[in-house]
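Quick check before the chapter quiz. The format below is the same one you will see on the exam, so make sure you can read both the input and the output lines.
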Amino acid sequence: MNTLKALSISPDLKPRTQADRHIGQLSYMAMWLGDGFNIGNVTLGSSIVVAGVATMNLLQTILAAGMAIAIITIIFVLNDHFGYYTGSPYVIQLRMTFGILGSKLASLLRGIPAIVWYGFQSWTGGLALNQIFKITSGYDNPATFFVALLVVQTLISIRGFKSIKVVATWISLVMAVLLIGMLIYLVTQRTAAFSNRMINVKGTWGPTFWGFVVAFLGNYTAVFESAADYSRELQAGLSNKRRAALYFLPIFIAYGITVLTGALLAVVTGISSPVPSI
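Here is the expected output.
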């Protein structure tokens, strides 16, 4: 009896069959767009601005982002093989290297940056919601919105990838419209500041440039480690090149818009934090 219990496998650890995979190519891209359209990436963009002037010019910023995202794409495609072709999750992939007991410790260590990022995103999102309610109704309590976001996101996660797919698709559309609209406004209505403080600056190809590349990579380090958890949900039959495009295009678009928006907000307003500057 104990032996049978020990051999029982949780449904979450069983391989996804082709019939179990409910995420198509457009939904997969929308998920990565939704992941990229966040306040954290806007904050990353604003971090390149010091005293109202960008430390890197527009070309350097785009190249740094492009280099980082190209590296991220390569790592994703290499690391998602196991999950995509076997349908097995990240935890099972870990067992190949660390064994059953070792994979439990590795999973816990993987959870630490996930918890930190989860908290950071929820806090910045809570600040944004609080700012909206503060302006519209006078209600001011960031902790309330922080806890509310934690609860909502947890409930969505418990319902699995189907719920995440729906939410991510709609969020990516809404955030894309909002951030593109803000970016167009900043470029067209604050042309002088954009030109003088971000385009016509010398910038640097030194430590600041490479540090920015590393910062980009750091944003996705915890994600591409567990690439199998994402790829096992994607429809079967896609080549490595096709999957690479499903990573590179949405991440580049989302990163490009959010980082430029963050940098321009800091340039125009002189405020490094994106929530009050917005």
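If your answer matched, good. The mean pLDDT is 80.
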